[in-house]
C-alpha cells in the first residue's frame, strides 16, 4: 500500500479555527484519538521476521501477505518500526491507571519505507506502508527478531530527519484529531514525551537493549509536547491499496493537489525534505 500526503504546521492558537475549517470542509466533527507509540530499531544485520514463535497461530489469511511483505522489506534493510496502541486520557494515564501488559494488548505494527523522490510534485510525500492491525505480543515478536526498543526521535514531531543523532527514549504519545472526506484524511497531530527534552540523554550505539517500555504512564497533565512551541502537524493524506497501479497513484496525487488549491490561504503546505520521514537504520561498516 502507498500513502501520499501533504504536510504543514499550525500554531496552537490556530488549532480551533483550523478544526472549524475542516469541520465545514468534511461536514463532520473531529475524531479524537490518543496513541502510545513505541519505536523498535532493527538489528545491524537485517534478517526480517523469521522467528515466528510469539506470533498468533494460525496467521489469519488476510494478514499473511502483509507479514510476508514486511518480512521481505526487513530482510533487505534495517528500519525503525512502530508498535502503536490506542489509549484513553481518562483511563490509561496517572498513578491510578491499570498497568499495561503490552503483549496482551492488541496493537498496530507499522512500517514505512523511505519516500519516493518528488518527481515534480514537491508538496507531496509518497511512500510504501505496511500496517498489521489487532496484533498481540508485538514486543515479544520484535524482541524475538532482534528489534530493540529504540532510542529514536519520531520523524514527524519537529520536521527533522528521523535518523538525526539527537535521539530520545523509544516512545511518544500521539494526540490526533481526524476528519474525513471520501477517501481523504485530514489530521492535526501533536506528539508528547514523558518528561522535558532537557532530561534525555543522547543514544550511544552498542549500549544494549536498555530498559523495557514502562508499564504505566504519567498523568496526562505531566507529559510534555515534543515541539516546544506547541505546534500541531497538519497532514492531508490518501492511500492507494495497489501500489503497482500508477494510474491510481496519479489520481490520488491529483486529488491532493486539488485540495491544496482549495485550502490555499488557510493552510500553507510546503515541500518537506523526504529525509525527514526516513526510518532506515544507517549501518556502519566495521573498521570505518
UniProtKB/TrEMBL annotation:
Alphabetically ordered keywords of this record: Activator, Nucleus, Transcription, Transcription regulation
Transmembrane segments: none
A Pfam family of this chain: Med18
UniProt keyword annotation of Endoplasmic reticulum present: no
GO BP terms: regulation of transcription by RNA polymerase II
Source organism superkingdom: Eukaryota
Claim: Aminoacyl-tRNA synthetase is one of the keywords in the record: no
GO cellular component, one term: mediator complex
Localization: Nucleus
GO MF term (any one): transcription coregulator activity
Family statement drawn from the similarity comment of this UniProt entry: Belongs to the Mediator complex subunit 18 family.
Subunit comment: Component of the Mediator complex.
Function according to Swiss-Prot or TrEMBL: Component of the Mediator complex, a coactivator involved in the regulated transcription of nearly all RNA polymerase II-dependent genes. Mediator functions as a bridge to convey information from gene-specific regulatory proteins to the basal RNA polymerase II transcription machinery. Mediator is recruited to promoters by direct interactions with regulatory proteins and serves as a scaffold for the assembly of a functional preinitiation complex with RNA polymerase II and the general transcription factors.
Protein name from the UniProt record: Mediator of RNA polymerase II transcription subunit 18
Amino acid at each position: 500500500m502507498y500513502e501520499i500526503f501533504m504536510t504543514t504546521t499550525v500554531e496552537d492558537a490556530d488549532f480551533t479555527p483550523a478544526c472549524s475549517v475542516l469541520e465545514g470542509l468534511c461536514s463532520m466533527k473531529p475524531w479524537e484519538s490518543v496513541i502510545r507509540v513505541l519505536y523498535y530499531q532493527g538489528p545491524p544485520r537485517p534478517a526480517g521476521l523469521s522467528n515466528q514463535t510469539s506470533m498468533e497461530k494460525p496467521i489469519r489469511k488476510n494478514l499473511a501477505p502483509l507479514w510476508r511483505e514486511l518480512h521481505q522489506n526487513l530482510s533487505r534493510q534495517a528500519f525503525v518500526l512502530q508498535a502503536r496502541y490506542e489509549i484513553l486520557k481518562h483511563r490509561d494515564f496517572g498513578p491510578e491507571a491499570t498497568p499495561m501488559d503490552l503483549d496482551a494488548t492488541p496493537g498496530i505494527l507499522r512500517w514505512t519505507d523511505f519516500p519516493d523522490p518528488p518527481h515534480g510534485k514537491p508538496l507531496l510525500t509518497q511512500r510504501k506502508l505496511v500496517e498489521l492491525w489487532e496484533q498481540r505480543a508485538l514486543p515479544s515478536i520484535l524482541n524475538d527478531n532482534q528489534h530493540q526498543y529504540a532510542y529514536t526521535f519520531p520523524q514527524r514531531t519537529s520536521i527533522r530527519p528521523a535518523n538525526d543523532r539527537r535521539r530520545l527514549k523509544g516512545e511518544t504519545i500521539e494526540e490526533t484529531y481526524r476528519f474525513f472526506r471520501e477517501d481523504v484524511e485530514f489530521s492535526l497531530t501533536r506528539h508528547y514525551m514523558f518528561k522535558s527534552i532537557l532530561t534525555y540523554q543522547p543514544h550511544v550505539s552498542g549500549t544494549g537493549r536498555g530498559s523495557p517500555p514502562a508499564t504505566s504512564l504519567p498523568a496526562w497533565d505531566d507529559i510534555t509536547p515534543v515541539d516546544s512551541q506547541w505546534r500541531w502537524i497538519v497532514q492531508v493524506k490518501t492511500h492507494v491499496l495497489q501500489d503497482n497501479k500508477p494510474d491510481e497513484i496519479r489520481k490520488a496525487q491529483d486529488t491532493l493537489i486539488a485540495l491544496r488549491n482549495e485550502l490555499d490561504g488557510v493552510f500553507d503546505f510546503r515541500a518537506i525534505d523526504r529525509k525527514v520521514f526516513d526510518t532506515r537504520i544507517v549501518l556502519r561498516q566495521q573498521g570505518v
